[in-house]
Amino acid sequence: MHNIQSPRTDDNAIEQEIQAKGKTAPRVTPAEIEANIASEHYFTAADGVDGHNIAVLRASEPTAPLEVAPMSDDPDLGKTGMAPLRLLTFCVLVLGNGFTVTGESACASPENFDAEIGRKIARQNAVNKIWPLMGYALKQQLHDVA
User: Fold this and answer.
1) Other residues' Cβ atoms within 10 Å of the Cβ of residue 102
2) Residue 25 CB neighbours (<10 A)
3) Among 47, 68, 97, 128, who pairs with 53 as Cys (CB 3.0-4.6 Å)?
4) Geometric angle at alpha carbon 105, from 101 and 108, rounded to 5°
5) Buried b vs exposed e over 105-133: b needs ≥16 C-beta within 10 Å?
6) Nearest CA among 29, 43, 63 for reference residue 138
7) Distance CA 123, CA 133 (A)
8) pLDDT tens-digit readout, 57-91
9) Model pLDDT for residues 31-64, shown as the tens digit of each residue
């Protein structure tokens, strides 16, 4: 059996290949993508439910302390409870112009869940949504000067 290594396909590897081949036409680069990210925010679906419950509590009792009823008492969670919601990680990237993109990472096996890995995957999925947006903006700029 032959063990052939797959070529790197991450954004920086592709950018290096473009440069190595002497391509100089306007393009969106990984550095431009990163420079366009103004802030990044991470949370799990469980965090979102907790935040929603706090908001509901605040709306019904504005002076009440910020304590939320135990999640196991929430009838909307059904038989599964909070466990599956702790395995779904979201990343929200705010771009320089205020536009937002989201990415997510869902873990099928609770035993494999790792918050840091979940955040990395969710972030990469969000970054993947920036490429077409910035590509469109670049194409529009090129069109406008033509």
Assistant:
1) 13
2) 6
3) 68
4) 160
5) bebeeeeebeeeebbebbbebbbeebeeb
6) 29
7) 16
8) 777 777 766 655 555 456 666 667 788 999 999 99
9) 999 999 999 999 999 999 888 777 777 777 777 6
